[in-house]
Amino acid sequence: MSEETHIGSDQDDSNTRADFFANVLNPESQREIRQRVTRLVFGGDSRRYEEFVQVLTEAATPGVEVILRGSCVTGHKFGSEEPFDAEGPGTSDMDVTFVGGDMVMLFREFHIPGIHSVPLSEEHPFASPTLAPVRKRLCEMVNRPVNLQATTSLVQGVRDFAMDQPYLVLLKKPEE
User: What is the C-alpha radius of gyration for the chain, rounded to an integer number of angstroms?
Assistant: First the structure.
């Protein structure tokens, strides 16, 4: 997985898979997303963003990449132009995914058994008892729901190819 991944949110819906993979290597796209996330979630305070990433870094097992998806990345709800936090501050959630490593072993509930978990969230509060304290801390840090999910590199690769969903790399997987 590369360090930089994004489809520009200012582009129209005609992005092709080639556009997506071209943006996978685009550091400027990642900077733009990071700035958007810092503004929308952390009130423009990059120190708060770095503290959030540090908590995720401490929770991650070796060999894990951590990505952020969803409306805080694009600035609007999936499938609509409703803006992030349209219903007031803290009303939009954050979707964090641990990719690779052994993170899926920390989950009890799965969309695809053993390789793609359900998110530890308000809907699935017992999906990962091990990560529940981390989720609680992250939610308190940003004063909004933070959903934690784990998947394998293979599933993430398929999602990259099939779904064209932009994301921000919070923690890059170490080179092997």
Answer: 15
How far apart are alpha carbons 7 and 12 in whole angstroms? 10
- Checking if the pLDDT of 26 tops 90, the result is no
3-class state of residue 120 by DSSP: strand
Rounded Cα distance between 133 and 63, Å, is: 21
Q: What is the pTM of this model?
A: 0.84
Query: Do the strands 116-117 and 110-112 form a parallel or antiparallel pair, or are they unpaired?
Result: antiparallel
pLDDT band, very low/low/confident/very high, at 12 (cuts 50, 70, 90)? very low
Give the Cα-Cα-Cα angle 149, 115, 34 (nearest 5 degrees).
35
- Contact predicate 170/58, CB 8 Å: no
**Looking at residue 32, what DSSP letter applies?**
H
